[in-house]
Amino acid sequence: MKPAGKARPLADDAIARIMLRAVGAWNMPNKQRHRGRHPGDDACFAARCIPVLRAAVNDLSWLHTRGYSEKGALKIVGDRYQLTVRQRMAVQRAACGDDALDRRRRHFVPPERLAAQAVIIDGYNLIITVENALSGGILFHCRDGCLRDIASLHGSYHRVEETLPAIQRIGDATAALRIANAHWLFDAPVSNSGRLCAMLLEEAAQHGWPWTAVCHPNADAALIAADAIVVSSYSAVIDNAPRWTNLVPIILD
User: Fold this and answer.
1) Distance of alpha carbon 120 from alpha carbon 241, whole angstroms
2) E-strand spans in 110-250?
3) 176 and 206: one domain?
4) How far is CA 163 from the centre of its chain?
5) Which of 148-152, 153-157, 213-217 tops mean pLDDT?
6) Candidate from 17-21, 27-31, 218-222, 244-248 with smallest mean pLDDT
7) 44 to each of 28, 49, 148, 155, how far by Cα in Å?
8) What pLDDT was estimated at residue 32?
9) What is the CATH number of the domain that holds 189?
10) 167 touches 213 (CB < 8 A)
């Protein structure tokens, strides 16, 4: 882990940029023990597809700015560019309207300002993104500057080989940033949340990281209501949280 440097500014170009980024092996097998990439992602996100995806993100952001519904706007754009389901997911996560972009910028706290601050971490959002990157998955550089994946969680979390390395990278990053304390929140309805909390706390105790971790019945609402700076890239959270930050670029640097 390199010492924390100046945070990357939020993207301000008119057309959202999609950047494919993977950490580790690019051809990780699609097995249960890895988060990894979907078997069809190499074709969906090949270099020849990037100009189309950029145009789709721009169009979807334009429609959001003008008040079109999420579902309707995505169908219009997806059908126009004949996007696959996975491509539509990526475009949806990369795009945002101008009002949302402005709000996110105004409430964003650069990571270099986190020293001696308390943060509250959107647990699954952060750890799955880092796991996905470490296992060779694709991350997208979105219009608001966040790096996002298109992984999904369906009621149950399963530890993968990248889970412990992901936790260690996150711990190294919070230590390098001199964060005063980090409180992790996980969705209680998701199976194995308690086991993951225990794993985090065990690692924190071994390394001296000032972490706490709990399962919450409504983690998103708790994150939005928190006084601490929220660590998340989930749009529904960062569009409503008083202060938020994004640690993924520093964790993966």
Assistant:
1) 11
2) 118-122, 139-141, 147-148, 181-187, 211-216, 229-231, 244-245
3) yes
4) 15
5) 213-217
6) 27-31
7) 16, 7, 16, 26
8) 55
9) 3.40.50
10) no
Tokens of 61: 């952001």
What the block records as the tokens of 26 is: 């690019």
Statement to judge: residues 138 and 161 lie in one domain: yes
Nearest one of 93, 91, 99 to 57, comparing CA atoms:
91
Determine the structural domain holding residue 114 and report its residue range. Answer: 106-251
Domain boundary among 98, 122, 146: 98
Please indicate whether residue 8 or residue 179 has the higher confidence score (pLDDT).
179
User: For residues 60 and 50, what is the distance between their CA atoms, to the nearest angstrom?
Assistant: 15
Residues 119, 193, single domain; the answer is yes
Do residues 246 and 129 both lie within one domain?
Answer: yes
Q: Has residue 219 been placed in a domain?
A: yes
CB 196 within 8 A of CB 184: no
Total structural domains within the chain: 2
> What six digits make up the tokens of 207?
């390394």
Task: Tell which of 98, 124, 154 closes a domain.
Answer: 98
How do residues 71-113 score in pLDDT, each as one tens digit? Answer: 999 999 999 999 999 999 999 999 999 999 999 999 999 999 9
Task: Please enumerate in sequence order all residues whose Cβ is within 8 A of that of 221, keeping only pairs 6 or more positions apart, or say none.
Answer: none
**Predicted structure pTM score:** 0.87
